[in-house]
Amino acid sequence: MRNLAYLCGTAADAPAITELVARAFATYTDWAPPGWRPPDLDAEMRKVLEDWLDEPVAWSLVALADAEPVGYVSLLPARTAEEPREFIPGLGHLWHLFVLREWWGSGVAAHLLGEATAEARRREYNAIRLWTPRDHARARAFYAREGWAPTGSEQFSEQLQLDLVELRRMLVP
Description:
Layout: E1 4-8, H1 14-26, H2 42-52, E2 59-65, E3 68-79, E4 87-99, H3 108-122, E5 127-133, H4 137-145, E6 149-157, E7 162-170
Parallel strand pairs: 4-5
Antiparallel strand pairs: 1-2, 2-3, 3-4, 5-7, 6-7
Helix pairs in contact: 1-2
């Protein structure tokens, strides 16, 4: 296995993270409905990452193999869906967890998720939530193995053109 390193993500990493996320979204064609195309989020994603990654409320970790990003996770405080969007006390939001296909099954995703969970505990969140595509069986099975459970909440993502489900992991008994 190639040499792996894990570094906190910063705004300077936005271009590399954007490329990694785009490559990860491209794998959705494996299970998405016929005709589905990955969203073109490059400029938008890069701007959001540049705006958020250096903010104290944000946390991210990038997995590097031979200095190239192969995985990425980010954690933010959860916010309400309604405007004005306000932080929800005690609830973290796992915004992204992506690993390149060639690293699936390597333990990189579990490591990134474990580090994000540890960070959520340090931030004294009671729980973490995430939204994942409803039909992404591989992702849902991974999260179930890692202790996440569906809440029953669903929403349609205009950006992704996919149905999403909310999963949560409790951090306190």
